[in-house]
Design brief:
mainly beta, 33 strands, four-stranded antiparallel beta sheet, about 10% helix, about 450 residues, single chain, seven-stranded mixed beta sheet
Length: about 450
């Protein structure tokens, strides 16, 4: 077995949070920190975007559907069915009949228009606070190719989400993961990449050798992973665009695994096992040499950098069981941060810098959890036969992980959950999936 809001529009607050909120500016929408459970999703209306050119009709409908799915998928928003609309939006420039939208209890209204010229796609939108009758900032527009229409939809959804919550978006991002097929005792694994919601799956490697633990670079253009292509675990780096790859660590008599990029994109940290001992090392991927960061007579693995690159969180059994530790990025004295019952592993530092996500095994169950950097406020978000390997969304508010079902035919599936422990959702993939790594927002 592997071990590895609340929302405000203008002065309207629809969510009740246990952990405080802060108004960003006295004249603007409330921005509330999403850290505790919410009561009721915010109802919004999203009429199908207007097709401003004759060949934009299908794109307008599909883009509207993806935006609505992005927002409702957070668990923070509830779409009002079009069948409940009293009036529609005749054109992007037409005045809004706010009374009709108030009557169906829409708190937010999203309108938009789509046009196509050749293979160029333009999407513009407006977001309204229905109760105040005000537009929330000036309209925005995004331009791309017709092939990238889903990205345009995700960008609109990110903008709507950010304006209402005050948080960064995460819809226009990708996930690299291990696609799994076949029986449990002969499972084939290959690297795959997809949109955050499971769309646009592409395969980066074949299934001729076992691959593990892919990890995105800070710019989202490269992926580190471990491969058994030579019979021993070795670390590779792969360019996502060209799918070209090269081995980074191939020292004879050793096994290297669990790689992860530093925030500078040039340094990686990883585990190296030799002579019966496993320690954490750092390497400049452009040929700057290797530095040993730990030297305890124990297993040290799963390193993850803090967002500023100054510290590393990792797992170690130096205390007699798997626990979490933090040390300076250049090595040195480590301090233990996990003290609850059970074993802890696969720590990942939040992109916001405030939390560490981890896998926990206790009393026969596996959990995905989060804690503060001093080990306080530990909160378990999930529980199952096997949950493991968390990865953070770019905004630090959602976690994706692997869930494996029990039994000889057990299947690995990707799931997501927000940091309140709400909104647990499967992520649809063509085959089984494990070891996800979430990219930053795409440029």
């Amino acid at each position: 077995m592997r071990f590895q809001t609340a929302i405000g529009i203008a002065a309207l607050v629809l969510y009740v949070l246990g952990a405080g909120w802060a108004q960003a500016q006295s004249s603007g929408p409330l921005r509330i920190e999403i850290t505790e459970g919410v009561i009721e999703p915010l109802p919004f209306a999203l009429p199908v975007f207007e097709a401003e050119t004759g060949d934009a009709g299908s794109y307008a409908g599909q883009i509207s559907q993806v935006i609505a799915a992005d927002l409702t998928g957070t668990g923070l928003f509830r779409e009002i069915a079009p069948s409940a609309f009293i009036s529609g939006v005749s054109s992007f420039a037409a005045p809004i009949q706010f009374a009709d939208w108030k009557a169906i209890n829409a708190q937010a209204l999203v309108t938009g228009a789509v046009s196509v010229q050749g293979n160029r796609l333009n999407v513009k939108f407006r977001l309204y606070d229905v109760f105040s009758g005000a537009e929330m900032g000036s309209g925005l527009q995004f331009t791309g190719t017709t092939d990238g229409w889903r990205r345009m939809a995700h960008k609109v959804a990110d903008a709507v989400y950010s304006r209402i919550t005050g948080e960064g978006g995460y819809f226009d991002s990708r996930v690299v993961y291990v696609s799994e097929t076949g029986a449990k005792d002969s499972r084939q694994k290959r690297l795959a990449i997809m949109d955050y919601d499971g769309a646009n799956v592409q395969y980066l490697t074949d299934s001729s050798s076992i691959v593990l633990a892919p990890r995105f670079s800070p710019d989202g253009q490269r992926v580190l992973y471990t491969s058994y292509e030579t019979g021993f675990p070795r670390i590779y780096v792969l360019d996502v665009g060209s799918v070209q790859r090269r081995v980074l660590e191939s020292q004879e008599g050793t096994m290297s695994f669990a790689p992860r990029f530093a925030p500078d994109g040039r340094t990686i940290v990883y585990s190296l096992s030799q002579g019966g001992n496993t320690d954490i090392y750092a390497m400049n991927i452009n040929g700057g040499g290797v530095t040993r960061l730990t030297s305890a007579p124990s297993i040290e693995t799963a390193p993850s950098f803090s967002p500023d690159g100054s510290q590393i969180v990792f797992e170690s059994d130096r205390s007699g069981s798997q626990q979490l530790y933090v040390m300076p990025a250049r090595g040195g004295e480590a301090r233990r941060i996990s003290f609850g019952p059970g074993r802890y592993g696969t720590p990942v530092w939040s992109p916001r810098g405030d939390l560490v996500a981890f896998t926990k095994q206790n009393a026969g169950r596996f959990h995905i959890g989060v804690m503060r950097l001093d080990g306080s406020e530990e909160r378990l978000l999930t529980a199952s036969f096997l949950d493991e390997g968390p990865t953070w969304a770019p905004n630090g508010r959602v976690i994706m992980f692997t869930r494996e079902t029990q039994g000889a035919q057990g299947r690995s599936t990707l799931y997501s959950v927000d940091i309140t422990g709400r909104n647990l959702r499967p992520v649809r993939t063509p085959e089984g999936g494990s070891d996800p790594s979430w990219s930053p927002l795409q440029p």
